[in-house]
Structures
1.
Amino acid sequence: MTNEESLTASNDNTKSNTKNNTNSNKDENTEWQLAEMVDAIAAEIDRAEDTLSLKSYARGKSMAIKQLKLDIEVKLRRTSDGKILFRTTDPGENSATVIKLDFAQVLESQLQGVRKQLDQPISTRPLATLPGITEAEIKQLNGIGIYSVNDLEGYTQTAAMVAELSRKTGIADSRIRIWRQLPFLSEVKPAKGLPGSQVVIEGDNFGDRDPNAAVLFQGQPAQILEWSKSRLIVTMPEVTGSGVLFVVIDGQTTNLLSWEAISVDLRVRNITIIPDQPSAGELITIEADLINQGNSSSDAFEVQWTVDNKPQPIQSHGPLQPNQRSQDSSIRRQLTLEAGSHTIRFTADPNHKHLDLNRANSTFTRQIEVKGLNQLTIADFREINTLDPLVNINYPSADINYGPGDVLSLVFRGLGRLDPKRGAFVPDIATRWWLSENKDKNTRLISF
């Protein structure tokens, strides 16, 4: 081969290698989100800071990155789910979009308490030595600048840093804590419970019981009944609703687990009365408005009516679902009452056999006013001597006595009428009357 042929072959190989490298770079130039880019750059800066800190510690000199500015020419697109994706332009490609990033120096005071101290031992072990770690997890950690066990320790100095690392990598918080040999929670049994019930918390690395340890449900301390390296048994505090639980051991906070405090709240809202203005002896229907306002189903329970402070027989009531209004027959009752004021009371779970969120609203009291009957006396034949001035009159001079009369004749007194057959006056409704004429016989008088 001549020198010219050799040179031509060399140039062809160079072009081929350049083309292959360009194609390879294009294959690796994938889309990314801005947060991912910032995380990766921040991780690189943090690693550089660690290196400079070690050199400063060894040489007795202060070394730090003062500032880093990057201008990145990118292409961007918006996905159907609203995400903005960026891609760095390939060699020879132009774009009007440029991202300008300016990473100023992080003050040392901002790093205190969250970065690993320089006098702590440094682990040079690779991530692959961590128990049970997978290649995918190693790649996820590498993506934010964690390449060794020492890097992992530096990024997990506090519970908040562990949670943030879990969020960025998608690796479970408990997995990271296993690698770091930190206390962690894996499961709570049951995941829902009533206040005051026992709860089992499983995890690991709890160690010996710390006298200052605390198990917190929604920020409220629980009573610790049993403690082992991987299992806790506690009594749930009086909390309600959904929230989280965690454990504080040797001043370190574990990861969080979701928790829901279930509760039953049997509330009697009203008592209706039909008819609303009853009369004495009338059949009355009373009905209680009962609902479960809690967030969990109740068991079967008892109810009781009380009438004028006299307890009625206790009745059984079926379970109520959350926010379910009762239609049970035990909430209705029929009775008759005498005239006057009466007190009616309805109580759910009168003997407090079940846990209830608010005992005060489990009973309701109402007053009932019962009217007396309207009576009409249509006949009363008791004798009266002085009430009727028309009938109970004595005429001593005429030897006439028209009394005594009775109440019926007094109430229904009327006028006389002509008998159509005889043409003479006869009594109509009045019980006693008489007919007289004056001396001239030109006037007739009807007397009652």
2.
Amino acid sequence: MNSNRIARYQPQIYLLVSSIILILLPIAFNINILSGLLLVSFILYFRFSPPAITRDKRHNYLVLIFLFVLFLFSAYKLTEYRIPAAYIPVTALAMYVTIFYNDLKLVFAFCVLASYHAGIIAGSSLYLSLIFLITAMATAILVFGLRKRSRILSAGCLSGIIQSLLYALAYPPASFSSLAPNFYSGIICAIVVAGTLPVLENLFGVVTNISLLELSDFNHPLLKKMILEAPGTYHHSLVVGNLAERAAESIGANSLLARIGAYYHDIGKLTHPEYFMENQRLLSKHAGLAPSMSKMIIMNHVKEGIELARKYRLKPAIIDFITQHHGNGLVYYFYRKALEEIEQDEKIYEEGFRYPGPRPTSKETAIVLLADSVEAASRVISEPKAAKIEEVVHKVINNKFIDGQLDDCELTLKDLEKIAQVFTHMLSGIYHGRIEYPEGNHHKQKGSRAAAFLPGQDKKLHPENL
């Protein structure tokens, strides 16, 4: 009971702790306390107008504060050792926040805060604050949507050039000795960010576009294992990944995260792949098993997936797809089978046939939940025509909505309609019908020539294979 109450007020606790830290920060660095109140006002602004700061993890407040404290400490030490103010790492902070959160609105706020404090620490210089602000915003735009580490270094070089030009405009005539620190500052920030990024990713458990692309490598041990041991699940995951990526793009969600999360959402099936329909060849392994045993095997793939993910050190953001891709939905087939086989004095409770959850808490995990169900339902359509696929897609999404599986995420009805359109379009292309070719006597020459490669076979090849 107490743990539930703590969990309920956890966001408010984080907000309170964050505010206290931010008020005490200026005192620690000998800055006016008004600066601390400015920081708190920004936190409150984001609390009531939330961008990516609160969307994914509640500890994001503390992660951002850690980065800001690190920035203030670096700036304070640089001025203490009389190092030129141009080396204050506003650019580095802008890079970190942009790469971690991919939200320019959030980055802009931190650029304003960092530039303001950098100007105060450097002797209350408005010109320096403006130089830092413009340079930091330009750097953020340069690394926004980053997918290659080399782009960090090129962004650092460009930010150094921009900062040097701004300094020359603000303090003419500028000598080479005064411009050099501005140029070197961008390069140094880029080298530091590129070198420390993997460390901070592991420390905070944050996924960036770079780490997601590394997980998309099909030589990853888990994906290679899936290809060999559960090829049906592997193909299903690829299709779900493509569906999720396009659907996320259509509503402005993180498409790369949705695709990579879909690749790994079913890794728990690797423990008993033969019990899942896409990997079964002849008879079902569930024949002869009690419905309660079958549903236990099916539901356990979530728990086993979490264990595999931790064994291979997947990030928490990827594990969320494993835990949430069924929400607390019903294992309907075996629930119905249990009701059909019920004895007189026996009672079957629906709760016993539901996944443990939780329900999806982000747009990306919700999209994968929908894509997973829609792909599975579309695969069994006898005549996969566009109209029939569209009907199935809307039916699946509607059922998930009515069942409450989308209650904890930020998807709107408009988003769901866009997602349905994307699913229908893509699945119509994947499961399209084929023309039936007549088995006439034409193309005899081609048929006989092809048959020469298949001795002992009298049956003519299908024209598509010639």
3.
Amino acid sequence: MKKPILAIVGRPNTGKSTLFNALAGKRLAIVGPKPGVTRDRIMTEADWVGHDFVLIDTGGIETGSKDSLQDLMHQQVDVAIEMADVICFLTDISMGLSDIDFDIAQRLRKSGKPVICTVNKVDVPGDPPPEFYSFYELGFAETIPISASHKLGLTELLDSIVRHFPEPIRHEIEDDNIPVAILGRPNVGKSSLANKLLGEERSIVSDIPGTTRDSLDSYVEYDDRTYRLIDTAGLRRKSKIDDSVEYVSTLRTRKALERSEIALIMIDAVEGIANQDTRIAGLAHKAAKASIFIVNKWDLMDQSAQYRKEYEQALRLRFHFMSYAPVIFLSALTGEGIDLLWQTIKEVHAAYHRRMPTSLLNDVVADAIIMHPAPQQKGRQLKIYYATMTGVAPPTILFFINDIKLLHFSYERYLENRLRDNFDFQGTPLILRWKGKAARNESKSVVTPE
């Protein structure tokens, strides 16, 4: 089930990042007096009295902007309207009202989304000062005074916010479908690929809007399995600011990954691999999702086998941290390679949910140790007593060992490679966890790769 989304919107330097940190309960966004200060996080999960939700700091659009303040605010509002269930419109009592505040208010009212007008920097407890009441001119019945830095008024704000969260909806069709996210830079061909996968030769089960802020989630049946395609197409209106495009792309990628099991990472064959492609792939890898690289627009490239081999080698070098992900060359326009993509999606999904018998797993580990004994440190040798599979999606294996201090990352990589050699884990990350024997500090006896 999808968690409701709260977006914070407001002029620069009204305290969006401070409020973001206060609502999240931890310091996630960099704050400072300079408008548009660089952010290191734009999205996080939070909760309030049993209500789990996702918090978005739309202030990330401000980073590096060269556009006018008014255009900048329009982009923030567009993101909030498109993505959020509830919008927190943050104003600043010390700065007073401005034409931009009234412009934002008008656009938010037209959206029909629930809006909480929040007046920040009311730093004295008790009744708000007289100037607070002028913010009712923005036209929102719910206008709440707060101090994000002093954490005053946040209880009233959060109580008001959660009252507007929609009731959780779970579609029955989601119980047995395979969610596939189509990821990539703007204009890489994501929508074209989604349309080709939903071609006339296949039976479309249904089209259910995830929410008003999402692009359409399309359900398609292929080889007696139902797939949910999550298209992360960009904003309908082209942005003038490259930073805004990257911001929205990252936001959409994270949201889509949360709802998916398989990530289709699209690369534009003509334009080549860009830095943003690496960031998108990194998000899928960090989220431990099964992944497939798709090199689109291959019909426009040299069709020789040698050129394809060289292109894949360059891609593998760039995405060395995802050597497990297969590469598919296709054309979403002509349909070349689509059948191979469907087959690969099936195989990768099976690998993502593959369970290994414990006895067979330990046989493979024992053989690996015989072929390459664990290294020694100061006369002590790593001993692996036992391995067991503790989960799937992604496959997760727990190793019981004598001392995690003796574990070297190179030996961990070696064991992962041996497991991949013996079991079909194409397209899926492997999570290896380690538990030391009789550790006094339990937190130090388990290693969990992030």
